[in-house]
Amino acid sequence: MLLETQRRAHEEIERLQEQVAAELTTRHKKHLDKLIQQHRIKKHLDRIQHLSQFLIDTYADVNGARKAEIASISNAGNSTDFTEFYNRLKDIKDHHRRHPDEKVEILELEVAKIDEDQEMEDIENTFSGEEMRGRFLDLNSPFELYINLKNVKRINYLAYISLFDKFDEESCGIPLETRKTADYKKYLSELKEYLEGFCKRSLPLLDLEALREAALVDANEWASSQDQDMADPKLFCQPCGKQFTKQTIFDGHLPGRKHKKAAEAFSAQNGNADAKAQTDVLQSQLESAKQFKVLEFTIQKLGESVAGQREDTRDFVERKQTLSADEIEKAKATYDLQDWGQEDEEDFSGESDNGGGDEDDNNEIYNPLKLPMGWDGKPIPYWLFRLHGLGVEYPCEICGNFIYMGRKAFDRHFQEWRHAHGMKCLGIPNTKHFQEITKIQDAYALWEKLNTTKKAEAFKADAMEEFEDAEGNVFNKKTFEDLRRQGLL
To answer: Which of 113, 415, 433, 489 is 20 to 30 A from 157, alpha carbon to alpha carbon?
Structure first.
């Protein structure tokens, strides 16, 4: 029966492919219908992968079962003897003779069978009330871990939604010392776990495995660049077994009590150390830092995948701050009505079968000034439109000459994905220095100026570090070392 099982697997794969193609050509208007469709396609694709793996294993025929079955029905070696074949045919005919009214299982109908009520119930139980069936992110739990990190910058939940995937020290507000702790790693792990779970539930067709591999590649590239910077033997403390990246940090470590105590113990052991000890320490530190970077790169890529939900979440949270409890419940009820209501799907063909076009024309909202719509689906008052300057256009060349309406939207866009992507394409970090910069040429000029200033203000130990001799005379480091070598001090 192995051959029949293989044939049925091939047929089921073809039927599933037809179902996937039919789903992809069907467009829905409701958010819930779109989400159910994506989960249905994901279920079909998983089944196709499972059956394909089964066929690969059976065609490999490791145990020889397929070859033996073919030989039994073809009677290899005696082409005129088909006894086994006719015996099987007789068994099939006898079965149908004994059960003439047995229902035939039509594979096409089995594959196409859909339990819509069960699918809706599964979606409803998958998301929390805050997520509203995949419309919004629920980052309250990671936010609590974030604000409890040591020496972290205090921000509100609304600001955190915009900054949770930014890990440069200026944007995220987390000191370098804190970013090496176990609490920070726990925070990253929980944030990554939530984002992956949310993507599986709200974006089931997203390839998470490819995303993880891309994050790992970025982390390996980062580790390769860091390996060169961390290998300076002059910044390796042999008694403590630590490698430092900056001369100033190394100099500040030497007077510490822990270093002195370790130096005494190191001297008592005759100070035996070799290059292998430094290499082991470097590899250990680099591997630990790489684990943090893998989490950070993964979160950044997940944040890009849920950019739409993040923007909707920020707008909804900001709107909730201005609404009463009853108005918030009314807004949630509006989303429920959109998902569970009985309104017809959008007719993308531009034709109407039931003559509903006249009714839509009669219900059209009168808006001659083209005012933006408020949360209630009606145009906002004209005085509010003028107050917020929503009629003023703010173009941004970095965003591809995208035009933002109103100062508030313009100020907010500097932390959004479109502007961040434009800055990344220019090879410039999206820091606070570039706030209000919308021209590409201005961004390059400011970036060059910042690099020049940074180099000029860099600490130069030979010229800036001061030493005092026994008589109270003050010299810089270079002069002091020269005089001491000549025996003049």
So the answer is: 433
